[in-house]
Structure formats: structure tokens, C-alpha cells
Amino acid sequence: MTKQSTSPLLRTRDVHLYYGEKEALHGINLDFNQHEITALIGPSGCGKSTYLRCLNRMNDLAGNVTITGSFELDGQDIYRPQQDVVELRKLVGMVFQQPNPFPFSVFDNVAYGMRVQGITDKKVLTERVESSLRQAAVWDEVKDQLNKNALAFSGGQQQRICIARLLAVQPEVILLDEPTSALDPISSAKIEETLQDIKTDYTIIIVTHSMQQASRISDKTAFMLNGDLIEYGKTKKLFLNPEKEATSDYLNGKFG
Amino acid sequence: MATIFENRLEKLRQSFTEMGVDVSEQIYQSTKSYIDHDVKLAQTVIDGDSDVNSNETKLEKQAMNLIALQQPVASDFRIIISYLKAASDLERIGDNAGTIARETLRAKGNPRIADVETVIAKITKHVRKMLEQILDAYTTLDATIAPEIAQEDRKIDHYYQTTRTAITEGILANPETAVAASSYLMVIRLLERIGDHIVNLAEYLIYCETGKIVELDADDGHLD
């Protein structure tokens, strides 16, 4: 790992995760810089999604899971006892493989997080709903149908509505777990474009099975295998001249 | 991933255009230095060759990054391959410009054959025009001109053969012209080679447009 000139926004050290007795992550060290997109790649079961879910404590919900190691966001341990998990998930939002809008209007979906925060001022809500939908590059497609049920839109639009919903609570870090694997190529391209556009304001970590997606949009790539971090570095370096043979083999589709 | 890919492709296009302008200038100045016996200009060309080489390296890196990271297919892929291949021919043309400039320095001060120099000036004009035409075509990636370029190159090949005979006759008529004559032989050979590289550039344009790999000079490309 190369030394960063700026200190990373999110720093994880020696992350181990156990499902009962079984160790699924064997000591992962990864740092994420602000305003960069990092892709986590690796074959199914390598632990990339498991690791991703540690970053906003989604694994807390699964029973029988033990996590050790340190996770620092802005220098603060996110697993410290006094950490408010809801507050954490506001700072570190997540987008899932299947678009999961709530079964109500686009407006109410995007305004949801703000209302939970206690924002009731109609003007603030309206403004931020619009700016979030614009940032998520879906505004033009939904602006005349804000009262329509979010589930009535296409998968790609739903996914961007979900991204807008997340942006509305102004997170610092956005986690995406295979956000385009349920979408067609055009919708995927739009999501990728959206991520490129918003990365200047956020720090993005994306788990993807698409090597092309990782190479196209990410600044850094981490390759994981069987619960280990095999290689992490600039995407360009990793795709053109990886250090490890395993990385090269995986990128060339020789396994996984 | 339209935007990021297109931005990078545009940068590649710019690098290629810059390289084309540089090489075109190198050819213009080197041939001018040779025809005008301008030693100073020749030196400028020799000094400029490393710029062309570093431009080529930059373009190669850009093209490789695009292929590895953006994984383009179909026409986007062909555009990149065409630029990549064209850049190496341009670089060779640039090398030839450098060699012609060196010949200017070498031939200086020796008895000449005026008629031959007139013909060389004519071939030079021809080659410069072909190069300008093909670089113009690259700005729009339009292969329409390709067959015409191949036709023009056949004329250059013809000039090469007849000029060679004229040079030999010149030496026989006045052996003191031998030093200059050996330089003429070198220069017309280089100009002929530049013509072949330009034909290659035309072939890549056809590939870019149609995906077909063609040999435009198949009938009479062998001069050796």
C-alpha cells in the first residue's frame, strides 16, 4: 500500500470477522480517501460484501457474528459503545443490489430520511428532494411525477431514487453492494455516470462483480480472495500491471 | 460510461493531432532544409525529434489505459487501435525527417547535380501534400481519401525508380558528385519510405471505418 499524502477519511485495521467459529475475514487493512471511488472485487464468497457491511455496522443485525479490528471514520471509532448506529448509517449510507424504494411516492421516499431527522419545513424538504434527485441524475425523469409511487418506475430509475434518498441525508460515505447487477446496461451506465458526478462530494465504496465497472469508474481497487485482501492500489496499476499473480488470474477470468 | 470514456478518447485524439502537427512540421522543415541547404534549420529538426518520440510514448500510454480500463468495443475500439497504430507510423515518419535533416548537414559543400535536386524538390512537395491530406482525414476519421493516397504513393514509387537512374547517370557524368549523389539516394529512399508509412495511415483509416484490414499497396509495394 502506498502512503497517502492526505489522511484517509475511513481507516480500517486488522479486520477479522467470525460467523460463529468460522473466520470469514482474516485481517483486512484498507484505507479510503475522501472523494475517491474504491471498488472491492473478488469471487463470490471472498468476503467483500461482508467487509462492506462492517463499514456501517450492518453485520450487527446478523446474529452470531464477531468482529475485531479497528474502524475509524474521521478518526472516530465507529464501534465505540456510545456510537449511535442510526447516526452512523446517516454518515455511511448503503445502496443494495435490488432497488428498495419504500412503497410510497418518490417525494416521500427522498424526504424520508430528513423527516426522520425532524425536518418538517416544506421549503427545505422540497429543495433538498429536488437537489438530491438532480444529483442522482434522475430528476428529469421523475420531476413531473413526484407523487407517483416509487415502485412504478423502472429498476434503473428506482435505484437512482434510492441513491437520491441516501444523498438527501447528506452522508460522507456511500457504500454500494453490487448496485447495478439487477439492471440493464443502459441503466447501469447511468448509475456509473451518476457515481462519477457525485464523487466530488462523497467517498464511495462499491462492491462489484463487474470487472469492467470497477475499471471504468474507480480510482482504487481492492482485490479480495477467501477472506484475505490480496492486492489494493490504484485501479490503473491493478488492471494494467498487478503485483500478484492471483490478481492477474482473476482479472483475466481464470478463476472466480 | 459515456462521459469519462469520451473525455479520455478526446484527449487521445488531441495527442494524435498534436503529434500529427509536429511530424508534419518536421517533414516540412527537414525537406526544406535539404532543398535550401539550410544547415541551421536542419539542426532544429534534429533537435525536435525527441519531442515526437515522447509524444508517441504519451499517446501509447493513453491508448493502453483506455483499452485496459474502459474496455471499449466495436467502433470505439477500432478508433483507439487506429490511433495507436498510426502513431507508430507517424513516429517513423518523424525519424525519417531527422535522417533527412542529417543528410542536409552531410551533403553541405559538395558538388551537386542540379536536375536531381529539382526532382527531389518535386517528390518532397508530393509527399508533404499526401501527409497533409491523410492527417486532415484523421481529424474526421473519414477513409474516403484512402484509395487516392495509395494512388499517389504509386507515383512516388515511380519517381523513386526514375530518380535513381538519373542519380547513377549523374555520377557517371561527373564522379565528383558522388558524395552528394549518395545523399540523394538516401533521401529519395527516405521519401519513398515516408510514402509507404502514409499509405499505412490510410489503411488504418479504412480499418477504423469498416473493421477491414487491407493492404493498399499490395500490387507494387516491393521496391527492394
TrEMBL record, chain A:
| ABC transporter domain location | 10-251
**Could you tell me the Gene Ontology terms of the biological process aspect for this record?**
phosphate ion transmembrane transport
Question: One short Pfam family name for this protein?
Answer: ABC_tran
**What's in the keyword line of the UniProt record?**
ATP-binding, Nucleotide-binding, Phosphate transport, Transport
One GO cellular component assignment for this chain's record is:
membrane
Q: Which stretches are annotated as coiled coil? A: none
Which InterPro entries did the record assign? AAA+_ATPase, ABC_transporter-like_ATP-bd, ABC_transporter-like_CS, P-loop_NTPase, PstB-like
What's the protein name? Phosphate ABC transporter, ATP-binding protein
Naturally occurring in which organism (per UniProt): Fructilactobacillus florum DSM 22689 = JCM 16035
From TrEMBL, chain B:
UniProt entry tagged with the keyword Nucleus: no
- Name the keywords, alphabetized: Cytoplasm, Phosphate transport, Transport
Domain PhoU as annotated: residue spans: 17-103, 121-204
Q: Where is it mostly found?
A: cytoplasm
- Can you list the GO cellular component terms from the UniProt entry? cytoplasm
Q: Which domain of life is it from?
A: Bacteria
List, alphabetically, the Pfam families matched: PhoU
What family does the Swiss-Prot or TrEMBL record give for this protein?
Answer: Belongs to the PhoU family.
- Could you describe the subunit structure of this protein? Homodimer.
Q: What is this protein called?
A: Phosphate-specific transport system accessory protein PhoU
In its UniProt entry, the species of origin is given as Fructilactobacillus florum 8D
